[in-house]
Amino acid sequence: MAIPLIFFLVVRFLPTFVALRLSLYDWNILKEVQPYVGGKNYSRLIQDGIFGKALVNTALYTIIGVPAQIVIGLIVALLLGKIRALQGVFRALYFAPYVTPIVAAAWVWQWLFSPQFGPVNTFLIWLHIPPQSFLTSPSQALATTAALVVWQNLGFQVVLFLAGLAAIPSTFYEAAEIDGASGSQSFWKITLPLLNPTIVFSVVTGTISYLQLFTQVVNLNFTDQGGPLGSTMTVALYIYQMAFGRFQTGYASAITVVLFAIILVITLLQLRFLTKRVNY
Amino acid sequence: MTVTQNSEISTTSLPKPPKRRDYKTVLAYLFLTVGAIVTLFPFAWMILTSLKSFQELFNLGFWPESPTLANYSQVITQTKFLTWFGNSLLIAGVTTLSVLFFDSLVGYTLAKFEFPGKNIVFILMLSTLMIPTEMLIIPWFVGVTDIHLLNSTPGAYFSIIFPGLISAFGVFLMRQFFESLPNDLIEAARIDGMSEFGIFWRIALPLVRPALASLAIFTFLGNWNAFLWPLIVIQKPEFRTLPVGTALFNGEAGTQWGLIMAASSLAVIPVLLVFAFFQKQIIEGIVLTGLKG
Questions:
Q1: pLDDT per residue as tens digits for the range A227-252
Q2: Which residues form the ABC transmembrane type-1 domain (chain B) (predicted)?
Q3: Taking CB atoms and an 8 Å cutoff, what residues of chain A touch B139?
Q4: Contact (Cβ atoms closer than 8 angstroms) between residue A132 and residue A115
């Protein structure tokens, strides 16, 4: 018990306080002197337009991504539950994006959505829809990036929901069928309420991961600048840019503290309002 | 082929006509197939691109006209692919073993022993899940640079590995599962004179195999594909992991699509195979570890 406790204290709690302390200094990894500046990093944050944009973008990613991956994941899991033959094969197929290295996925995405000759635009032209600029357009780049993240997370969502569905006792469905309940009735009255813990888990962990979105964004653009006109910039990417691109460690730490506060508040609110106790 | 066991029974025992079920099953297969094609299209594109020759890369046919393994042999002989692969294997392997051992030990202790402060310990561990990695990364980096770990052989590997050695999420999963093991079983072993560690190792652990399987695959996957922390902490090319190596490869060698795709396809194969073999245990593991609430 002692080793794990020391581990959590040294690797998780201590750094949290170090980050709090760093955020009060004009800390720079490359310099010898680190002057104390109090709340100056935080007041700078309020006036920082790029930080504001990163905050808005991160919120947009979360609002698009979390519901999308939960709805699509649930539909696929429900359909998988309806079939017997080839179920394992389909499960593995839907899981494949989840294990694809993000670097490769990001590159394939650039190719698929490339403005002139990409397969997606070829398909759109075939449907008589004008081709779009996707990742090179400041108004479409964020949604296209979010689509990549949803695509990659789908496999995990499906596995999670399959497990959640498997935990619902089949006697409930049999009883409902005897009572003459329709398919949609048993979905809304049995499946969805009993799936609540899985959905809460999915919403909470999904939100936390979208609030920390970094790898997909950085690999889609090859830089830490965040897409066309900063339109895909996230808070995590901005932290990386400040801390490791410009060595403004103190300022970057202040952003991490703000991010921590946001995650804490949102998670606690979600746990409070989404958790309904279902007894069976 | 689409007639399930259920519908066979229902023809005799229930008034519902079996044809309706068949049509639903066919629809399910149809939707799943279309969905799988859309989902797999980018994945297939990656593999097919890896088989295209350099000349063929920029003509955008779906199938390679003259498939070649040239990209694969080039990736293996002319890049540090094997080193990256080995580094990733070492890092993901060590982390997974450590997480399996410590998380099950801590989960078992929290589930089966009474001691003062037990709940506080549990809540403290869980609360670390809400601390964003970004917040910890700066202090970690300052720490490992201060003690000059980054350029020596065990030091650099240790720097990449140490944040993941124990996972709070894994502790939670394992505790949930050990709670469902009957206490009588442990009591009986105690009466037979087995040591506490013996009970854990030889009785409790084998009973949680599905939970261990799902924890193992997700820990391994997470570390196999880890990007942010390795990107920051790796200073020398020989310590690069597969994701970092492939990402930085772009800048150093120009955009060599074929090679990147070959390297990525090779990186996917081992994990996809493991998932295909163990998917039943993985799903069973998540079911049993108590996400049902």
A1: 777 888 999 999 999 988 888 889 99
A2: 85-278
A3: 14-15, 18-19, 22
A4: yes
pLDDT of residue A2: 74
Mean pLDDT of A147-152: 93
Q: What band does B290 get if pLDDT is binned at 50, 70 and 90?
A: low
Does some domain include residue B98?
A: yes
> What pTM was estimated for this model as a whole?
0.85
CATH number reported for the structural domain that contains residue B165 in this entry = 1.10.3720.10
Give percent helix, percent strand, percent coil of chain A, each to the nearest 5. Answer: 75, 0, 25
Close Cβ partners of B270 (under 8 Å, ≥ 6 residues apart)? none
Classify residue B112: in a domain, yes or no. Answer: yes
Question: Is A197 in Cβ contact with B293 (below 8 Å)?
Answer: yes
Q: Does B123 touch chain A (CB under 8 A)?
A: no
Task: Output the CA–CA distances (angstroms, integers) from residue B185 to B191, B192, B200, B284, in the order listed.
Answer: 10, 11, 11, 22
The number of distinct structural domains making up chain B is 1
Does residue B273 belong to the interface with chain A, where contact is any CB pair within 8 Å? no
Structure tokens at A276: 């309904």
Listed in sequence order, the residues at least 6 apart from B221 whose beta carbon sits closer than 8 Å to its beta carbon are A98, A99, B271
What radius of gyration, in Å, describes the C-alpha atoms of chain B? 25
B94/B99 Cα distance (integer angstroms): 9
Q: Which two tokens stand for residue B158?
A: 């240790």
Cα–chain-centroid distance for residue B223?
Answer: 7
How close does chain A come to B237, measured CA to CA in Å? 17
Which one, of B246, B264, B262, lies nearest residue B72 by Cα? B262
> Other CB atoms closer than 10 Å to residue A273's CB: what's the count?
9
Q: Read off the pLDDT band of B59 (50, 70, 90).
A: low
Q: Classify residue B124 by burial, with Cβ atoms within 10 Å: 0-12, 13-18, 19+.
A: middle
Could you report the per-residue pLDDT of B194-230, keeping only the tens digit for each? 888 889 988 888 888 888 888 888 898 889 888 889 9
What's the ipTM?
A: 0.82
Point out the residue among B24, B131, B265 whose CB comes nearest to the CB of A12: B131
- Total Cβ atoms within 10 A of residue B153: 10
CA distance B134 to A259: 9
Average of per-residue pLDDT values in chain A: 86
Partnered with residue A36 across adjacent β-strands are A25
Judged by a CB distance cut-off of 8 A, whether residue B215 touches chain A is no
On the CB side of B282, CA atoms within 13 Å amount to 25
Determine, yes or no, domain membership for B51: no
Give the domain range for residue B118: 79-291
The nearest CA of chain A is from the CA of B258 a distance in Å of 11
Residues in chain B: 293
Cβ contact (<8 Å) for B268 and A12? no
Is B99 in contact with B165 (CB distance < 8 Å)? yes
Is residue B177 one of the residues assigned to a domain?
A: yes
